[in-house]
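look at this fold:
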Amino acid sequence: MDSNDLAALDANDPLAGFRDAFVLPEGVVYLAGNSLGALPKATSARLDQVVRQEWGASIVRGWTEHGWIDAPARVGGKIARLIGAEPDEVIVADSTSVDLFKLIVAALSAAPQRRTLLGVVGEFPTDIYVAQGALEALGGGRRLQLVERGALEDAIGNDTALLLLSHAHYKTAELWDMAAITARAHAAGALALWDLSHSTGAAEVDLNAAQADLAVGCGYKYLSGGPGAPAYLFVARRHQDRLVSPLSGWMGHERPFDFADGYAPADGVRRFLCGTPPILSLVALEAGVDLMLQADPAALWRKARRLGDVFLELAATHCPALEPACPGPGRLRGGHVAFRHVRAAEIHEALVERGVIGDVRPPDLLRFGLSPLSVSYGDVRRAVQALEEVMGLVARM
């Protein structure tokens, strides 16, 4: 594949126009969207509007006059369209870690006769840490069982209460067959909780088609919600009446403005709200989500896969010393590609000096996030050219 082929891919890309909707520094190839999405140009104007015209002019009346109080449900309903859920099954709240804690405790509390929370070795550390903390808070002899990826299905048993998995692995981008694993959990009487942080916006997700029970995801990666953007959680309708959040904050109360002393959870997914929603952060997230919703979903997922395939094909030709650490061309992946090299950290630093920003994960992993709206095929070509130059220097050291 040569530069003419890549130019043709960009010329025929139905999403090419979205690139101009982002603030992208001159001379930089930005491939860290799996850590922090690029800034949509609309975000600054929208935040300025909220600060000056809404907060500044309406002050506290903004909660009702400008719909601030409805923002968690409104933005959650928009995200639902990207993950195959209904609007009343998704709400924006807190961080991914806090949402994981809420859903883990809620699910385990609803199945007291089962003692095992099941996951896999090498998941994103926060997920494991939160699971450990949730079990400590619950007490009662429950345990976290971590198994190798290939042993997961056989490990699901009569004592399994909940499965905790990342849809796309944060290092390798490998995707689970969500429908098959969820069906296996259900056959054993367990629930499945999916972390969508490395797939929403970069890989096809259809929670209801997969009969998923619970899910969480962050807002700052492919959704371009900004650093520290709020997270979102999904609770399937069939579970909403029986699962109760362990963080019984006032916004999750059925009548928050009655200011009653006793707690009564709200109906539906709103019961998983806790504290006052961060409106400025929610507005920034909504701008990123609105931008993604303008794109054709099929074109999004198709381009995300193709960008990864092209990167892997070019790297195999021009950088053979890099060991691919993700599924190869033609196979399903999350939104990034990954390579192993003993000098990954040095390679990463040298790429940044050349204007190519990816990221590195210890001890030896290079990751390149390929956000389908902001990344072009020309970006991939320039990144691999820089990578080839750096690898040549490494070989001579």
Q: What stands out?
A: The chain has two domains: 3-30+296-396, 47-293. The two ends are 29 Å apart (CA to CA). The mean pLDDT is 96. Residues 333 and 380 are 17 Å apart (CA to CA).
